[in-house]
Design brief:
By secondary structure, the chain is mainly beta. The protein contains no helices and 4 strands. It is globular. It has one domain. The relative contact order is 0.39.
Length: 56
């Protein structure tokens, strides 16, 4: 099983993901922080890392 993380640009709410990391530490500009089945974990002024549910 893997836990995906998605980096989010808070200025672009609702945009599809631009970056997905399997190790949960990938940082990049892009995307939105409201994610289905996801929750914000790391929040900065410009971006949020969202960890989705672990795939079973």
């Amino acid at each position: 099983s893997k836990t995906r993380s998605q980096v989010v640009d808070k200025h672009d709410e609702g945009v599809a993901s631009l970056a997905i990391s399997n190790d949960g530490r990938y940082l990049a500009a892009g995307v939105s922080y409201s994610w289905e089945r996801g929750r914000p974990q790391t929040v900065t002024r410009d971006r949020v890392v969202v960890y989705t549910d672990t795939d079973m």
